[in-house]
Amino acid sequence: MQAVFFDMDGLLVDSERVWLRIETGVMARLGAEWTPQHQVHLVGGSMERTVGYMLSVSGADVPPETVRAWMVDGMVAELSAGVEVMPGASELLDALRAEGVPVGLVTSSLKDIADAVLKSVGRDRFDVVVTADDVTRTKPDPEPYLTAARLLGVEPVRCVVLEDSPNGVAAATAAGCAVVAVPSLLPVEPAPGRLVVSSLTEVGVSDLRDLLPS
């Protein structure tokens, strides 16, 4: 096992509820309502996709860059105040570090949002961080995970990805990585090279190694 890559929202930290609060507030400014059902459409997607969807649903005549700024400012403000790490995530991070396994954070969120999360989690716990600002195509495209592997000088086929969304799982699988899925808002089905669990508390370093081809 040459590296392990963590997704951020909904996998490393419990930020999906923060996204819902900020999205609901932004949609109110656009004169429309926002529900958890709307949020499900955007799990694991990019900011551009989120903004486009919100403008489509609301029909508001507001520049996309304005809505984007409302979203980013709101998320950074809330996350900078602190964010809850998902059960088992810190323990798994510590176990990987103790064994000398390189660890990366790979997220579809923008750098400013990732930086706000890392203030709580600790930037020094990751050997590489890849955000939406670092790629031209976000998940479900494999580019984010291929970029992280390239930056670490490792082979994707010898890496394990931890994800919570179908978009993220698709990106990791397309990159050639093994996957541990911890579904949050959308289901993820088991598959070869993929372990589906209800919490990271169920996963140890040896379980990650077992997913890789011998």
TrEMBL record:
Gene3D superfamilies: HAD superfamily/HAD-like, Putative phosphatase, domain 2. Coiled coil: none annotated. SUPFAM superfamilies: HAD-like (SSF56784). InterPro entries: HAD-like_sf (IPR036412), HAD-SF_hydro_IA (IPR006439), HAD_2 (IPR041492), HAD_sf (IPR023214), PGP-like_dom2 (IPR023198). It holds the Pfam family HAD_2. NCBIfam families: HAD-SF-IA-v1, HAD-SF-IA-v3. This is HAD family phosphatase. It comes from Nonomuraea composti. The lineage of its organism: Bacteria, Bacillati, Actinomycetota, Actinomycetes, Streptosporangiales.
